[in-house]
Amino acid sequence: MNIFYETIIVVPMIAFIVAVILKGIFSTISDGSFSLAKAFGSWGMPSVHSAVIVSTTTAIALKLWIQSDLFALSLAMTVIIIYDAINVRFEAGLHAEAINQAIGEKRFKESLGHLPSEAFAGSVLGIIVAVILFYI
């Protein structure tokens, strides 16, 4: 067992850092300038939410195996968080956009959720980080 898995909280922390850095890089490439708000924002590629929760679930699976109760709880939380990131917050953003158009000003934040591709990329990143840290 390595140091990252003795205290499993380190795995999602590293996944968070890597996801935020990647999000900053991708937003800089697409927008032409770096924005700290976009790097830490609740939208964009990859989904930090997905990276953190999937890295946690993967770490638990690798350390305790998939038959553990903690893995089952973590998997349930993963499904809820990714569903929320894709669906609930995305819909809230659409509502904010409609309200902003109705009142004629941008009072409410419209970019709240993730596209499925962003959540998928975050999930893959979470798995990669957890597996790499497991084998270091």
Overall 3D geometry? globular
Spell the H/E element sequence.
Answer: HHHHHH
Sheet of most strands? none
> How much strand?
under 5%
Average pLDDT, all residues? 87
Category by helix and strand content:
mainly alpha
Radius of gyration: 17 Å
Written overview of the protein:
This protein has 136 residues and is an all-alpha fold. The chain has one domain. The chain contains 6 helices and no strands. It has helices at 3-6, 10-31, 36-39, 48-64, 69-103, 116-135. Helix 2 (10-31) packs across helix 6, helix 4 packs antiparallel against helix 5 (69-103) and helix 4 (48-64) packs parallel to helix 6.
What's the arrangement of secondary structure elements?
Blueprint: H1 3-6, H2 10-31, H3 36-39, H4 48-64, H5 69-103, H6 116-135
Using brief descriptors, characterize the structure shown.
136 residues; mainly alpha; 6 helices; globular
What can be said about this structure in brief?
With 136 residues, the protein is mainly α.
